[in-house]
C-alpha cells in the first residue's frame, strides 16, 4: 500500500505592514504640528495613531512603521518601543530626564542608526553612547512654503504676552496661545491643521516664545521674531536655519519694561522670511532613505 504524500503544513499569511502616526495629548498644539509634519512624509495615510509616551505599550501584532519625531521625555518604563513598531528616527529629541532610558537601551538605538536628531545637543548625547547620529533638525521645517504673502497681513503674538513688544506692533495684533486641553488626536489634529492654515494665510509677522510656532512659520515663509534661551540646545535649530534667538529674560516686561533687552539684545522687528528650501530637501531625504531601508 502506497503511503499518502505528506502535505506541507499550512503557513500563516504574513501580516501586511502598516504606517502609524505619532500623537501626544500634551496640551501643546506644537506637538500636533510635529505629528502633521511627519504625516507629510508617509507613502500612504496612517492606519494607526500611537501616543508618543506609550510606544512601549503598543500591543497590535501588525508591524507599524512610525516616524519617531518630537520630544521624548518620560521614564525607562516607556522605552523602548514595542517589537511590532518599526521606528524611523528623524527629528528625535531626548530630554534630560529621558537620557537614562535611552542609555539603558543603547543596542536598540544602534539597531536603527544613524539616528536623525532634532538638535545638536541630542546628536552629541547619542554619539557619547556610541550611537551613530546626525542632526537632521525638525520635520516641521518641511511644511510647504506659502504661495504668496497676505495683502493685509496681521501680526500674531503667540505666547509672548510677557515680552516687551513695541506698541505699534501690539496694536491690532492677534494674540494667541498654543496651550490647549490635552484632548484626543481626533480633536487636536484638525485644530492644529486649521491653525497652520491661519498662520499661512493671514500672518505677515509672528512674534513668539514657542519653538513650534517659530519653525512651522519659518517653513511656510513667514517672518518670525523668536524669544527663548540662547543657551538652550533644544531651540538651537532657530540659529541653525539662519534665524536669531532673542533672550526672553532680557526682554520681559517685568524687567524694566524690557530695557536691558533693548540695549543689549536689539531686536529686528521687521525680519525677512528665511529660505529653508535646502533644509526641506535634506529632511525629506533623511526620512525617505530611512523608509526605503526599513
Note down, in words, how this protein is organized.
Strand 9, helix 5 and strand 10 form a beta-alpha-beta unit. Helix 1 (29-39) packs across helix 6. The strands form 4 sheets. This protein has a 5-stranded parallel β-sheet. A 4-stranded parallel β-sheet has the order 2-1-3-5. The chain has a two-stranded parallel sheet with strand order 4-6. It is of the alpha/beta class and 294 residues long. The chain is globular, with a radius of gyration of 22 Å. It has 2 domains: 18-139 and 279-293; 141-276, Rossmann fold. The protein has helices at 29-39, 99-103, 106-111, 120-128, 167-170, 185-202, 211-219, 237-240, 259-264, 277-293, and strands at residues 18-23, 48-51, 64-67, 70-72, 85-88, 92-94, 115-117, 133-135, 154-158, 174-176, 203-208, 224-228, 245-247. The longest helix has 18 residues, at 185-202. The chain has 10 helices and 13 strands.
